[in-house]
Automatic annotation (TrEMBL):
<keyword id="KW-0808">Transferase</keyword>
<feature type="domain" description="PAS">
    <location>
        <begin position="204"/>
        <end position="276"/>
    </location>
</feature>
<keyword id="KW-0677">Repeat</keyword>
<dbReference type="GO" id="GO:0000166">
    <property type="term" value="F:nucleotide binding"/>
</dbReference>
<keyword id="KW-0547">Nucleotide-binding</keyword>
<dbReference type="GO" id="GO:0005886">
    <property type="term" value="C:plasma membrane"/>
</dbReference>
<dbReference type="InterPro" id="IPR035965">
    <property type="entry name" value="PAS-like_dom_sf"/>
</dbReference>
<dbReference type="InterPro" id="IPR001610">
    <property type="entry name" value="PAC"/>
</dbReference>
<dbReference type="GO" id="GO:0016740">
    <property type="term" value="F:transferase activity"/>
</dbReference>
<dbReference type="InterPro" id="IPR000160">
    <property type="entry name" value="GGDEF_dom"/>
</dbReference>
<keyword id="KW-0472">Membrane</keyword>
<dbReference type="InterPro" id="IPR000700">
    <property type="entry name" value="PAS-assoc_C"/>
</dbReference>
<keyword id="KW-0812">Transmembrane</keyword>
<feature type="domain" description="PAC">
    <location>
        <begin position="280"/>
        <end position="333"/>
    </location>
</feature>
<dbReference type="InterPro" id="IPR052163">
    <property type="entry name" value="DGC-Regulatory_Protein"/>
</dbReference>
<dbReference type="InterPro" id="IPR029787">
    <property type="entry name" value="Nucleotide_cyclase"/>
</dbReference>
<dbReference type="InterPro" id="IPR013655">
    <property type="entry name" value="PAS_fold_3"/>
</dbReference>
Amino acid sequence: MCKHSVALVSVAAASSPITFLMMSERPIPPLDAESDCYRKALAFNNLTLSYIARGAPLDQLLDRIASGFSCHYPQRALAIFLFDPETQRMRVGAAPRMTPQFLAEVCALPVPDPDTPQFWHSFTALGERHQLCLLEILPLRSFAGAVAGILAVCAQTRALADPAHLEPDYREAVGAAVSMAMLAIERALVPVHTRVEREAPGVADERMALAIEGSGTGIWDRNAVTGEMYYSRGWKAILGYEDWELSSHLEDAYQRIHPEDLPYVQETIRQHFASQSDTYQVEHRIRCRDGSYKWISSRGKVVARDATGNALRMIGTTTDITEVKQLTEKLAKSSRMLDYLTSEIPGMVFQYRMPPGSQGFFTYVSEGARETYGLTPQQLLENPSLIDSMIHPEDLPMFEAARQAVLDGGLHWMLEFRVIPPGQGVRWLRGQARPRRLEDGTTLWHGFVSDISQSKAFELELQELALTDHLTQLPNRRSFMQRLQEEYSRVQRGMIEGAAVLMCDLDHFKRINDSLGHAVGDQVLSHFAALLKGQLRKSDAVGRLGGEEFAVILSRANLQSAAEFALRLQTSFASHPLLHEGGEVEVTISIGIALMQADSSGPEQVLRASDDALYRAKEKGRNRFEFAPFTGP
């Protein structure tokens, strides 16, 4: 993505000129990417974009954007106004620090057409009358080019309006606010049927959210840098809260956890943040809105880390297991009462005995066996080995090892595994129990097995979302680097002789955005991504690294085959240009090629070498490819 600076433009308003800011093409000075300020801003923006992707309410998104800006710049206030074409008036989208009088007059201002000098003069004159030191009045344009609203920033004093105070990080923040506000507005305005059609090839966020709500499972999203939490409507409903209730502060989340369970939860999170566990999984009590406590089971995973391995973002699901806990405590009651109670539970409750030196057997199985294993309780009581025969072959060693660990003295059994019920497809189950050793050496299990196929599907969709570029539907940089590391390992182990790594960049892409607009630029990127994907073999890999840069891994390729691929790609792109408004959008590509061999220093060095070759191709006139001379140690 191209970065822009903010240039001062003077526009006459009423009797005196007023200065405000517009976006220009001049690159801003580089920011300190290692600073806490930059990392917090990046984390805030990433989390805001994830909320936009999930379809959070527009008013909440705009208020988050405006409030976040004002927290970072306390001496400046940001306001967002939305244009209503039916009433031909502006309405307040978010203005947490503007005066009610000013907002009322803005909303009363006639706006036949917001994309005219007359409206801008009227707005700036109104700001002058209220003694506002306006810094920016920026149009919020839709992808179609229409003005959907405006974003305004004002300062507390005239001194802050001086260009000397407009530091690069402030300009970057304004640009980010404009982009996020417009994305939020666009998503809110897109009709539902159009949105579904657009999302069908990728991750259908709304469909996934509805499925989560219907399953009684809640989803949460934690910003590990700021501590900010996002809860789905279903998560809040588990505790009895309405959608607009509950704060996003981590401290409030910890206060809801039962005091006896809090150290265990915090230690489990710490271990997962420190990469000491593959997933985060806990069961604990939590306080509801009415003051009562529920038992919940939460499972999550860090989906983003920085270059040093520090956790940035963690996503997970929460399930109410209160009934399971209560029923587990009542397993000693009569069989009739137990049958009645467990028939209401979506899972299998069981008691299992394993005498020393002999095969184990079930002494109790609830009706939930039909839903989990596709078997009747009587079938399992008569032949418990039926379960082992249904376990997925890849999971059977893990299942047997977990069972043996309990026999060797383990205090808790919790396992997720796949089964293949008779005549059905693969199903994910979660089993948990607290085995007890009897005086005669028998191990007695009281446990519960539930179907978590839906939760697993949600996790896979979340992982796909975290590893896919939304615009092109290609793997993103994180996903590509993982594949590059895997290919390098294969080369090092001698599984393949070598591979070629290509860096591709669209020439003069900025001109497309400037002359035809970012919407057309996005179409060009998607068009190129489709052509590029069509040239690959199944063994190859591709990813969008950012902006107009793409990378390719050609497995088992040498310089000649890599050059043939590069030429074929350039020819295909040139002969199949994007059509726009009856004309062709002509774009060329430059390519850098590097070989990855057994003596290569590492995957990053190979990628850097291909990037250097790409730079030489740019220097030599573009629309060509160049080779990296050497990538060894």
